[in-house]
Amino acid sequence: MSAASSYTENKATIRARKLRDLRYGWAFSAPFTILFGLTFIVPIIVSIYQSFFKTTTAGGLYGGGKQITKFVGLDNYVAVVTNEQFWQGMGRVMLFGLFQIPFMIIAALALALVLDSYLLKRPTVFRLGYFLPYAIPGVVAAMMWMYLYSPQLSPLASVIPINFFDKNIILASMANMTTWTFTGYNMLVFLAALKAIPTDLYEAARLDGCSGFQVAMKIKVPMLTNAALLTVLLSIIGTIQLFNEPTVMRAGQSWMGNSYTPMMMAYSTMMTSPGNPNMASAISMTMAIIAALLAAVYAFVQTRGKR
């Protein structure tokens, strides 16, 4: 057999092996890909499609006819961006995020640094304890905090004489719920990034006489910028979608209304009879665009600052 034919045969064998591996890869990922498409991608496409239509009832002033769905272009989006209640709700969630996100990220970073240090003898127990609030469903957690906030029921009422449902305090009350729930989750993101840092850097720093605090501030924290970017981006998106906490708190605070946050507005638009899925889709898509813009601006500033 000549060298040329042997090379051609080996090349064909390698190509066949790669093709087989590719098929196996797609076969193993197919269940997730199909489920992800059906539960995530398809609803997004349907929502985008619905946002460009409007359903009306034929039959003149008093109706009585069949419902007609017609294409209205950007009319639903114009109605959303010109709705004062939408921007009031957006202003509330942005104010919420301005003080809640930094506090939560700093707390998560501090917990991760402590768990990665030699200060704790059983870090697994503390790691599980910090993460447990995230495992509690959001509605259940909000109801639990409602009990703790209620002056008639809470065992803390006599210790902390604060009206947590006051109009000027209620955002901070919701921020406390969210921080309690998601700090442990963000801590795990930071902790995973800390475990990926080569330990040789720590040993070299200690040989140079650096203390544990200096190692944390000069080596660990600067190498967590990518993890911080991820946690802040996820927090921005989650803040725009704030729903569980204000919805549960509204049960006893009717003054909040159905449009206290944009997500509540989209939900009430869809569920209040007669429901309007087209307008609800337009509200949801507008929220997604705003969240994407805020995340893109933060990512741009963060990456530009690293240059």
Automatic annotation (TrEMBL):
Report the transmembrane regions from the record: 24-49, 93-116, 128-149, 169-194, 223-243, 279-301
Q: Does the keyword Disulfide bond apply?
A: no
Subcellular location field: Cell membrane
Which intervals hold domain ABC transmembrane type-1?
90-298
One Pfam assignment: BPD_transp_1
List, alphabetically, the CDD domains matched: TM_PBP2
Keyword Membrane recorded: yes
**From what superkingdom does this record's organism come?**
Bacteria
Q: Which Gene3D superfamilies match?
A: MetI-like
Sorted keywords for this record are: Cell membrane, Membrane, Transmembrane, Transmembrane helix, Transport
Q: Which InterPro entries match?
A: ABC_transporter_permease (IPR051393), MetI-like (IPR000515), MetI-like_sf (IPR035906)
Q: Topologically, how does it sit relative to the membrane? A: Multi-pass membrane protein
Q: Tell me, what is an example of a GO biological process annotation in this record? A: transmembrane transport
Q: Where is the signal peptide?
A: none
**What is the similarity comment for this entry?**
Belongs to the binding-protein-dependent transport system permease family.
Give the protein name, as stated in the record.
ABC transmembrane type-1 domain-containing protein
